[in-house]
Amino acid sequence: MSSTVEATGDTAPTWGLLVNGESMAAGSGEVFDRVSPATGQVVGRFAQGGVDDVDRAVRAARAAFDQGPWPRSSGSERAEVLHEVAGLLRSKSDRYARLESAHVGIPYGRVGWLTDYCADVIDFYAGAARMLFGRSIPLGPAGIGLTFQEPVGVVAAITPWNFPLVLTTWKVAAALASGCTMVVKPASQAPASVLELGIDLLEAGLPPGVLNVVTGPGAVVGRALADHEGVDKVSFTGSTATGRSVMESAARTVKRVSLELGGKSPLVVMSDADPSAASDAALECFFNSGQQCNVPSRLVVASSIADEMIGAVIEKAERQRLGPDDDADLGPLVDERQLQTVASYVDLARREGADVLTGGERVYPADQRGPYYPPTVIDGVEATSRVVAEEIFGPVLTVQRFDELDEAIDVANSGHFGLAGGVFTGDLDVALAVARGLRVGTVWVNTWNKTYPELPTGGFKQSGLGRELGLEGLSPYLETKTVQLNPHGGSR
To answer: Contacts by 56-60 with C-beta closer than 8 Å and gap 24+?
Structure first.
């Protein structure tokens, strides 16, 4: 099927909703434009779905689950489709990278890894589809008990804009491997690559109705999915505030819920760490202009090396080149609203007496008027400040010092989030003490932000519920059924 249709008299590609294997307009006929934050040009036009469109998509997914072949197919049959789409992604690497760059704003040269990584995730779950084993439990004279792993049903996946293909793939690959059917609601800032993934899945042999995509505002489409009685489970990635709202809506019909929410991740740098290597890790705070939930946005550093460490971070941060071109280090924030949010936190830090050591003011690289904000390092922040406690989702790194190991762990564990953390040290005992002490879902030791399909990810505290990736990533999409077999047909 065709992925896009050129609008009459307009060069902006237009995507429809993807429902029951067909691209179609929204019931209202309304569309919305996506303007690239890097260039200010319209890069896509999308159907603006509403409540009726959600109902249409859920009904398609419901029919595909209740009567269709996908939930009843073997693991090897599902694996064949998933492996096929992984190959399609690899063959379209440039197209997906261009879409992500244009819609999100991340420089094209920084997303070359995208499709290979997503294809690897899909291949992993293709293999896992063949390993959904139950158990047999002998019950003596009463017979035998069996457990089956069965798909949970119709899944509503609500995904964010910062890495739309990656974070949607995490959900789609695991849910489809489990035999579920789906309705995906991508973020309005970057829905194109998610729609293309749905189209490629159809080309790979996924039956119509198994995966549907409805674009439109979260307050309408996302809420309608969380409320819909035909949805069995909601899988959401986004802000903690929106996650709470999704959870409340899902509770009305007791839907299963998994949430991957915000983070304010600490990077603990011990006194024996190599400042050069540790500062490279701290620079991850600015990747994608800080618009990533697991960036090391809090530098928790031993007082004895703090000045050297901060100096190394600033020197590297100031070399980061911002702009719209392919080989820039950093692109813009996703939109003007996000820039104003980031700027307001930096202004708050100044009012509270903190020191903005670098950055902290909007920039206009190459005369671009987009929402560009430079890497910003803030020292002298109070532990109780909102700048330290709240997720900024921008290129802002705060600095906190410590003198003793226990103090470092206490500082790192402060706050409501528990998504990720890390430690740099040459002492294995210290590394393990920090890793065990941090109340987070992922701990990196002497590295940062390495993810693999085999390793689960997710958060403690208000950073979420459940896990994605790894074999644990299948659990949210499966139900366990118990069957007792009594061969004698009696009460024994």
So the answer is: 56/19, 56/27, 57/17, 57/19, 57/20, 57/183, 57/212, 57/213, 57/214, 58/154, 58/156, 58/183, 58/225, 58/228, 58/230, 58/231, 59/230, 60/19, 60/20, 60/208, 60/209, 60/212
The predicted-structure confidence for 341-381, as pLDDT tens digits, reads as follows: 999 999 999 999 999 999 999 999 977 889 999 999 999 99
The structure tokens listed for 84 are 């096929």
Q: How far apart are CA 306 and CA 189, in angstroms?
A: 38
Using DSSP's 3-state secondary structure scheme, residue 214 falls into coil
Tell me the per-residue pLDDT of 150-206, one tens digit each, with 9 for 90 and over: 999 999 999 999 999 999 999 999 999 999 999 999 999 999 999 999 999 999 999
Burial of 484 per CB tally in 10 Å (0-12, 13-18, 19+)? exposed
Please identify every residue annotated as catalytic.
Answer: 260, 293
CB atoms near residue 250 (< 10 Å): 22
The encoded tokens of residue 81 equal: 């489709």
Return the SS3 of 465. Answer: strand
In this prediction the pTM is 0.95
Per-state percent for the chain, helix, strand, coil, to nearest 5? 40, 20, 35
Give the CA radius of gyration of the chain: 24
Q: Residue 345's CB: how many other CB atoms inside 10 A?
A: 20
Q: Which residues does 99 contact at the CB level (< 8 Å), separation at least 6?
A: 192, 193, 196
Task: List the one residue out of 304, 402, 317 whose CA is nearest residue 357.
Answer: 317
